Amino acid sequence: MTDERLRRWRLVLGGGPADGTGQELTGRDAGMDRTLGALYWGQGGEPRTAGLGGSAPQVARWLGDIREYFPVSVVQVMQRDAIDRLGLSALLLEPEMLEAVEADVHLVGTLLSLHKAMPETTRQTARAVVRKVVDDLEKKLATRTRATLGGALDRSARVNRPRHRDIDWDRTIRANLKNYLPEYGTIVPERLVGHGRASQAVKKDVVLCIDQSGSMAASVVYASVFGAVLASMRSIDTKLVVFDTSVVDLTDRLEDPVDVLFGTQLGGGTDINRALAYCQSLITRPAETVVVLISDLYEGGIRDEMLKRVAAMKAAGVQFVALLALSDEGAPSYDREHAAALAALGAPAFACTPDLFPEIMAAAIEKRPLPVPDPAA
To answer: For residue 98, what is the enclosing H or E element?
Structure first.
């Protein structure tokens, strides 16, 4: 085995008589090993080192070390592991800790679950951390979302029985190329495509209904950002509702997704039926409305009533979208029985990545089949 492979195995195994490599680490490698050993455990349940303990200065030094030795993506994973394995959540209530961490969606979820317990000085630091993550996400997601949904709104506004002066000849010709008659040198237009004029364009209503149980933290973050982007589009009237066993309408905070996030209360039970009942009360134009339920579908309310509400909305012409998650992590643990029942109503429930969400919304606005991802892909 080469020295490089021995070195890598030594870092993985953590040293001691059982690792079998006989490899000594020096310099930067020894520093990397110390930071790994402070977090991860060896064989037999024994800690590789003394661990991080409960000392805030020691944790702050460790956070600095992992940022020195590892790339950002690895740092974020190690931070999440430290919070989960070593119970460091309480230390995030200290401003010095927040200034040392590498901020990402998962850290935002942790902060949101803690923010009610934060002293005011820490809350301001936490808000700055959340603001940075949200601003970065909005820059990444906004342009493509507006372009994709703008195109969908334009297509949904086109007139298929236009008056002569409203015919879009370029699109009409392209739509009827298959009807070209070479013997006559002309096209027989079976379908006329008209310009979507301002007076004909119909504004769309979107209701985002978000489960704020603890497992949905990343979805809450992404949905809040998308809600702000949708609300910025004049052709879409967006409402945002969050729920656990109660329902809170955060539509008036949509201009700032950070305000939305700090208006949520992660954790608690789930009453999807009550949330959908409230969403139903917001619908005034069913045929022009898209309702997006983001939930793992573990219903603590009245199951049959929940399904009846979905069926009633669909029968009225509402485009109903059920997302098990809106994140990069794939489908969480979810209620498969409820997912199957929704699918039987014509509303398949599936996990959606942030990159796919604009396409999902565009399809719903245009009333075409949703591009449901293949779970095996």
So the answer is: helix 95-100
Cα 79 to Cα 87: distance, rounded to the nearest angstrom: 11
Q: How far is CA 92 from CA 63, 129, 222, in A?
A: 12, 11, 22
Q: Read off the tokens for 241.
A: 């509702």
How far is residue 212's CA from residue 332's CA, in Å, rounded to a whole number? 14
Which DSSP letter does residue 333 get?
Answer: S
DSSP state of 367: T
Burial of 120 (0-12, 13-18, 19+ CB in 10 A): exposed
Q: Which helix (H) or strand (E) holds 243?
A: strand 236-243
pLDDT in tens, the chain (377 residues): 567 777 777 776 666 554 556 667 767 777 787 777 777 754 334 444 445 555 555 666 677 677 778 887 888 788 778 777 766 676 677 777 777 778 888 888 888 877 777 778 788 888 998 999 999 999 999 999 999 998 888 777 655 556 666 677 777 787 788 888 888 788 877 777 766 554 445 789 999 999 998 778 889 999 999 999 999 998 999 999 999 989 999 999 999 999 999 888 877 788 999 999 999 999 999 999 999 999 999 988 788 999 999 999 999 999 999 999 999 887 778 999 999 999 999 999 999 999 999 999 999 999 999 998 875 44
DSSP states along 140-163: HHHHHHHHHHHHHHHHHH-BSS--
Q: Which domains does the chain have, with CATH numbers?
A: 202-366 (3.40.50.410)
Asked if 191 contacts 175 with a C-beta cutoff of 8 angstroms, the reply is yes
Residues 372, 363, 283, CA angle at the centre, nearest 5°? 110
Which backbone phi and psi does 129 adopt, to 5 degrees? Answer: -65, -45
